[in-house]
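Ligand-bound model needed. 3,4-dihydroxyphenylalanine.
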Amino acid sequence: MFMDNNVLKAIESAQTTQELEDIRIKAFGKKGSITELFALLKTFDESTKKIKARELNILKATIEKALQAKKDILSTQELAQKLKDEKIDMSLFKPNIKGSHHPVMLTLEHIINYFISMNFTLRRGPLIEDDFHNFQALNIAENHPARDMQDTFYFQDGKVLRTHTSPVQIRTMEQEAPPIRMICPGAVFRCDYDLTHTPMFHQVEGLVVDKEGKVSFANLKYILEDFLRFVFGEVKVRFRSSFFPFTEPSAEVDMSCIFCDAHGCRVCSHTGWLEVLGCGVVDENVFKAVNYQNVSGYAFGLGVERFAMLMYGVNDLRSFFESDLRVLEQFS
Ligand code: DAH
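Prediction:
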């Protein structure tokens, strides 16, 4: 039987984990005492070798177990000592890192402030929407491209992650009688990812409804021009005829490029104009879906990240969501 009481005794009397580690190396290292015993095995004949190998493995296991047990004791002691020695005086702790709002939230706050000042009130809606609110009631037909699997995140039961904040127009009108003058800020989701698209982003929806004839495209035009000048300063604004299923007529709103003063640059694709939002006069079919009669209204929708990119001169939308403090700290 191999015996190595020396090793076991040494383990027993070790005072530190470092000492213990030295003992382990002396036993099991390249030239360790136990390693050498293993090397000796080849000098025995086959049957003796078998017996000796078994004994040796038992010894090895005994030593390893003793090492581990002692290590547990010593490291607990050492940790307790360390905690005692390195007690932190919290009264001396002066953090110089300040938290700050996310640039997208700063932008959103700015946008909301404008509309609140113009007597709009805030509404919210669910992020998980049904087909009726996200599409049908907004006059988006069954085969409309906006329902394409590539754009929309579908649940198995047919519900969707809302693709825009427009369904909140419907929910508001279902719950309230006109007049309505609301904005709805919130997250929306689309299956898209590149320089200017992320699967989650934010929109602000606007809806104004009143008795027939009381709300017109002229009102819409005034508010949006005034809003864009509030956010971006003295810009030119133009309304370009467009199509949205839930508005008729519909328009896309462009403002003169703030980076090149409308002379043409990379950001505005050398056109001098930046597309900033969509809007229009609420389509009759939308009012029908919520049983509204003898009313008129306008609506608009904008992408908050798009505004943030323009306000802060950021050219990769994804950088807003990568949580890199070197980027985010610049906006505090
Ligand atoms: N819902 C549209 C979108 O996602 C944006 C929009 C355009 C909203 C025109 C409106 C509107 O209310 O009138 O992209």
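Residues 90 and 229 are 49 Å apart (CA to CA).
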